[in-house]
Fold these 4 entries.
Entry 1:
Amino acid sequence: MKFRNYISRALTNLSGWTSNRKIIVIESDDWGSIRMPSKTVYEKCLTAGYRVDANPYERYDSLESEEDLEILFEVLRSYKNNKGNHPIITANCVVANPDFEKIRSSFFSNYYFETVIETFKKYPKHHNCFELWNVGNNEGLFHPQFHGREHLNVSLFMDALQTKDADVLFGFDNYMPGCISKDPKRKGNYYVEATYYKSEIDKEEKINFFVEGLQIFEKLLGYQSKSIIPPNYTWCRDWDKAVLENGVQYFQGIRKMREPNVLGKNVYYNYFLGKKNIYGQLYLIRNCSFEPSLTNSKDVVSDCLREIEIAFALNKPAIISSHRVNYIGSIDLENRNTTIANLNDLLSKILKKWPDVEFMTSDALGDLIFNDISKVQN
């Protein structure tokens, strides 16, 4: 298995932009989304027969608390490279969540959302989280970029509520965006696949939601998001121009991205680092993983270091995937404690092995690649 992973990472790094600079980007998705609302709801799900313990996102993930953010920032602050820069998280955020009370008041006839700031205010240990996002950004620790308006497929969610789907109604009553099913054939909570569509009308609705989210992001954060990561690595290339018009120049992602079509079938497209689309937007490709909550590996630090080493050996930046779920402690405190210990170990070993390493955000890396390619072309 490790040999196969080695070959896979090597293939990911073969094509595209190269540099002998040792650059590390840490991309972390899902900040701001609700997922599992609380430990109480988690236990209620188990009692009701929902195997939320079998899916890491339902098992560990939740809206980040002030404590989650402060502990993460403390670790990042404690390390600097030889230029005095801290490791920085590219925090891919959603800017809204469903407004459950308004949806209920409409008798499920209309969908309503609230901004992430409003969501934070409804949770007991989260009131200052948006301020902490800004603190982290100002200190060069936590740099928000756009992930979606909400991490929810609105049409699927509303259809399920209107047809009185028992699983989704249970989730709704417990302020969950969707729900896993009791049917063992249906894996995970597919209601979180925000950009998936099955009709032309649905396809247009999805990009309208996404663009609205980009505009809310700019209003809340005070700047446009230059990069995005499509939820669940699902994106339609017909939408590229619409997001370009709202400031998006770079797509985060993986080597193989999914595009739905109205026939219900998926098409997969291969990308490489620095590839341009017809509008001049660039693709950034994740080639390393630090996901303690999502893996069965007993040595995630060594695994990640090995992937970084492969990237650097092939003159590629190390773009590390590390989802929010790893850093959340409200459902299971040990989950966060384990990751923080591993993160300490990883950062210490990175700086010891590569003292000239450069920590960079996704959009900064995109700028570097864009400028480098432009020089060559000119």
Note: The chain has a mean pLDDT of 95.
Entry 2:
Amino acid sequence: MTLPQPRVLAPGDTIGILGGGQLGRMLALAAAKLGLHGHIYAPEPDSPAFDVVRRSTRADYSDEGALDRFARDVDVVTYEFENVPAFAATFLAARVPVLPDPKALAVTQDRFPEKSFVAGLSIPTAQFASVEDFTGLEAAARTLGRPCVLKCRRFGYDGKGQVIIRDGADLAAAWREVGEAPSILETFVPFEREISVIAARSLDGRVECFDVCENEHRNHILKVTRVPARIPPALAGKARAIADKIAVAFDYVGVLAVEMFVVRERGEETVLVNEIAPRVHNSGHWTLDGASVSQFEQHIRAVAGWPLMRPLRHGRIEMTNLIGTEVRDAAKLLIEPGASLHLYGKRSIQPGRKMGHVTRVFREGT
């Protein structure tokens, strides 16, 4: 079967977005800036992205009738999160172009094929092994040694579905903690810092990377992103080259994030790839206020078949997530000179939930 092929969109055309969270919301706002319409498809009734578009569909991702109507109303489909059910992506791709290609979803939805894909490009990662059952975990732990990290292969985020196994730890307890589900075991990486590269690849194959970000996590949730990362220029260039290589290997169209560890080997700093996110990413939120083009606009440009912009950073930047009840102090940020506040319109405050973020741009050297 021949699938529908992407085309260059015109102002007034419609981009369908799967997922109604804050990323979908910001993608829809970026589309509107460029004269394109957004149509959000999400099952949750309180999806914050619904508030910023004229057209939305609230339906389950398995609802063929709703998916078919959605496909007939849009000119291209993209997504805000990588766990789009394979059925929905395949169903839509037969009717309307879906970008990035669902093949990238198939790889990045499962940590083992993802790590295997990266390793197959001769890009360094932690050592890893697939774990299908408890016997397999015991064997993998003997091979890789401890400490090591057990991660469920699918649906893990913000530290969920993973556990560090240290010397003397109970393997059976770790296996229960990941739900006794197919997993991946990785050697523990004693990293110096965590970084990420936000890259965009256009329909014609051009790749543009934003400056390398340095990320600070608290309780496994991204708290602060600082740009530029405190790494040598040569290492930053190596990190961007890795993101470029991954985007090209996927034949990717859109924005992706490559999360990496900075480690020291034989006295020198280098990088290991940790994860790929085939979408716009929390560590790229600084680009809304700190760059000549945001990651969201860059993604919209890519899936619309429009030229990418070369991103230029405006200064030294710090982006801080507002998590849970921290959003109640947002009024203070509204009067802070130089602070740019973004609230996501979420109606309920929950522990660990990202409610918004604030960006501060400083002159270089301050």
Note: The mean pLDDT is 95.
Entry 3:
Amino acid sequence: MDEFAQPRLERVRALLRDAMRRVEEESGAIYAGWSGKIFRGEFKASAGNLADYLAFRRHDLTELQDELALLGLSSLGRAEAHIGPTLRAVDATLNRLAGAPATWPDAAEFAAGGLRLSTAQKRFFGSAYGGRSTRIMTTLPSEAADDRMLVERLIAAGSNCVRINCAHDDAVAWERMIDNVRQVAKTAGRRCPVLMDISGPKVRVESVSSTAKRLHRGDIFRLSFGPLDRKSDETAFSINFPDVVGKLAVDAPVLINDGKIGARVVAVEEYGVVLQVTTAREKGEKLKVEKGVNMPTVELDIDPLTPKDFVDLDFVAENADIVGYSFVQRPADVDLLVGELAKRRKSAPPQPLLLKIETPLAVKNLPRLLVAAGGRHPVGVMIARGDLAMEVGPERLSEVQEEILWLCEAAHAPVVWATQVLESMVKEGAPSRAEITDAAMGQRAECVMLNKGPFLAEAVAFLSGILHRMDRHQTKKTARLSALTSWKGGQEL
């Protein structure tokens, strides 16, 4: 090695050793904090790697990355599933370059994390189908209870698993849906897991004044604590969790119907708060009952399971393949659901839990949520981008969803990329260009979810083709250097 390369090599070795030392010290402390919460032996290695990853990413590693790249070595940017083996492999290579003894990790150590993740993916979302690794989940419409042909079309188009939203229909309809799915899947010779998504405490518009007008930017309207004054000629509404209104302060944002109506609090009164519209289409927007309401600056502190959820769990605990947990935010929320499921399932094995990440607090607590759930149940995550975008802000959504993907890969927890995927195609029959790109990005998750609509089966087939093509080019964050097909010999010009 020449005299110019030697100092660089020694500097990189020192940087790497410092990073490895910090990981070893800090990871141990993180894992110790989870003691007594991990009862599933198969999750211990995943929790250990998650602790390594959290310790690894606590510090700025860009200088080390740049220096490693200049030496033609791994920049550590794709180490999520196997932090320890990656660090030891790079350290061994640097040692060999410096003429020191070197021992590399066994290839099986690198493969173990990916194998755990692929096993969990199959458990949650069914087997690979259609020549692609990423699975497709479809949300069943009410018609699926009585229209078996609809279910056949969805599964034939490439749906690997299905979702039942417990906010809609009832146990009688759910039972018929599940029966249709299982009969069709059996005939097709496939396994099609059923996710039942308990509703959770979603804040919604409960009532709207009879005199409500279409809202435009700058308009004033009211959010009431209680019943609306039917004699008033003002535009007003109430929500299903009225106590939350009292937590709003002046300038707090309030977003309605996925942000179609954006407003801010301009006054707090005895009977509620006064809002001014900040965002609306030029033609205005209508307030509608049942539409979601988000208050990003307010920590809602609502019970994680509603009275309806407790009733629904009687059916879910017996019939669902996977239990979806809406608006989970704290480890105590997980403890509550785990306890309720255990009461109902008795000696039956624990069901896989899919944690829906929808609030800033859930993002902040994600490592602890994964451990609280994964320590007792198989665990996965849904990036519920509708409410999440409203809560963290649309400008932060892309960053947050990336971080969730990385963290879950470190925990070997499969992820669902959800909300408004190919929305225009599902509802109107043709996708927008931006939606096509979004669907392609979803390939880095273990599963992509489509919502219900009249063109759902066509969207499943279209999405299947996109995911199949993207599998040639991408695995998680790693670009696959398969042969390019758009330019075959440089003769195109």
Note: The chain has three domains: 5-105, 117-201+303-479, 205-294.
Entry 4:
Amino acid sequence: MVERPQRAMVIFAHPDDEIGCAGTIASWIKGGTEVCFVLCTNGDKGTEDLEMPPERLAVVRAQEQRNAATSIGVQDLVMLGYPDGGLEDTQEFRGRLVKEIRRFRPQVVFTHAPITQARHTHRDHRICGAVTLDAIFPYARDPWHYAEITRAGFQPHKVGTVLLWGSDNPEVFVDISDSVELKAQAMLCHRSQFVERPNRDPNRVPGDFIREGAKRMGERGGLPYAEGFQQLDFRT
């Protein structure tokens, strides 16, 4: 178990990716943790519907993300607005993450596991996870990295712990028995992806796979319902 921090940040690629840690976040917010979401892309390619143009989908998914954040109590939501499928490991993208990390000053950051072997993951997920880790260390920590951000008043910050969801080998399990329904509720806010998507299995109750997945992860951690993470610690 990881100790609940005062401040936590979630950096994720697409609207709805925050579901990977939404149960933990909802539980921590109940306990008093302040949370910031940093959404990197606008999700404008996430549909099979040829009648849904990307520019309209981006508007829809932005509102869905606001609704999901509100449903679990997240008040600080940053949308960077990169196109879906367009994340790259660039100095500019890394700098935007450095600025948000220095501004919010979290003790714990959640993001995608950048490397997996058990399954292929979306390229945006891999880029987001890798750039987030680099932004945390050393770039957010050292004042002469992105000196222009330092001069603008965003002082260096040392993140203590990173929790990676989607890892092949989770080692930290968080009990979300008190928040699994909030996690499902947050997922259902992303209606374009989980409720109204044309290829959705009509025989599946939306939200059931959240409960089933949390139960399977709980079995690995000896808990009723859980989220599992790989933990990286940095010297502070």
Note: Strands lie at 7-12, 34-41, 76-82, 108-112, 161-165, 172-175, 226-233.
